[in-house]
Amino acid sequence: MTGTGEPVRLAEVFRTWLPLAASWLVMALEQPTVSAIMTRLADPELHLAAFGGVVLPVALIVEAPVMMLLAASVALARDQASHRLIYRFMMALGLGLTVLHTLLAFTPLFDLVVVPLLGPPTSVVEPARLGLRLMLPWTWAIAYRRFNQGLLIRFGRSHHVTIGTALRLTTVVGAAAFLGFVLGAPGVMTAALAVICGVTVEALYSGLAALPVVRKQLRQAATVTPPLTFGTFLTFFLPLVLTSLLSLLVQPLGSAALARMPEALASLAVWPVASGLLFMLRSVAFALNEVVVALLDRPGAYRTLRRFAWLLAGTLMLIALAVAFTPLARVWFVTISGLAPPLGALASVGFAWALLWPALDAFRNLLQGVAVHAKRTAVISSATLVFLTVSAALLLVGILTQRFPALSVAMFAFVTATVAQVSWLAVKVRGEAAALAKR
Q1: Can you tell me the distance from the alpha carbon of 291 to that of 14, in angstroms, rounded to the nearest whole number?
Q2: Which has the least CB within 10 A, 264, 320, 322, 433?
């Protein structure tokens, strides 16, 4: 992070954003890559539905509380004492959530909780159980990685985040290709083991890359006054945890709704492929949140960041339009992703319903960054609750009416809910935004 009082220029925002966006984009490539390999193995529809419709949603919900460790590390890990406090918390949280994952995957809770909530087709249940068991190391690896990535961003080493993510993708692709094409492993096993190998490699790299920060820069950092206490940390962190939890409910909420609407199995199979492409476009906007937090103290920062958000949103909208309404859709969903033509057509229609989603995320992350800077993290939680409420209501309408294909209903619900979320954030932080615009 740059600590000067010089005005923020658009070029500096771009330079700060680019390595983080590249990291997010490389990470976002993981799901489409794994899905593309799974479509070329035996019973692709079954295993795509198991992994994308059950395994990944449950794993994401379990890991949700650790996702915001990156934001907490960026904002609060400013000296040795605060670093130690957050590190201890990270390790305890990772252990507790791994125990929860164990209970869901290896005990009757899978049949008592996971199956009734998500309602997958019967044929999907056992492959999903196996995949969830193989994903056991997921949460602790993510916790360790996010914590160290926050240190790297705060102390000006964000390029290591990109390198670590590239290593993760390379590992995932190599492991998936070996497991699926050489060993002939089932699709859900291939996906789960490949993903675990990737996140483990990335976690180990982030820890090694952060060692110079821990051994040198944190020791030289000025002591924070007043010192960070556990209570202060929880006040900052818990609203972010709620935000992360509610945000990641999108995947299981979508899966549960898809399983209860027309074209259920086909929609569940297409869901990870269509949402994977959307996540790739949305991911570059996610990086804006950390950029806003890092630069907003500087003169002229908000005006420049707002301009950048508009440019990013416009670019993402143009890319989404090009994919949805040109032959690129067939190229991506059928040729590259390997879906059968009928499933590719379903994915294209679903993607078209979600055109606005990536652009909206640029504004959402700008406004969330303002809220984090103002230490009003509860606003982010309330906005995410708005998103969840609106999307759940629209999905319920789709389930009750049974008139429209499941994937299109889900995409429409999530885009509409994001409009409501961004509007809520804009209203709640308008005072802070107006004050920052005058600096």
Answers
A1: 9
A2: 322
CB 160 within 8 A of CB 206: yes
CA 123, CA 120: separation in Å to the nearest integer?
8
Task: Classify residue 2: in a domain, yes or no.
Answer: no
CB atoms inside a 10 Å sphere around CB 40: 13
Tell me if 5 is assigned to some domain: no
Please, what is the angle between helix 406-428 and helix 250-258, to 10°?
Answer: 150
* 1 assigned to some structural domain: no
Structural domain count, the chain? 1
Sign, Cα dihedral of 357, 52, 172, 214: positive
Tell me the pTM.
0.76
Given a contact cutoff of 8 angstroms between Cβ atoms, the answer to whether 397 and 258 are in contact is no
- Are 378 and 428 in contact by the 8 Å Cβ rule? The answer is no
170 Cα distance to chain centroid? 19
pLDDT digits (tens, 9 = 90+) for 268-287: 888 878 888 898 899 889 88
Domain holding 365, by residue range, is: 10-437
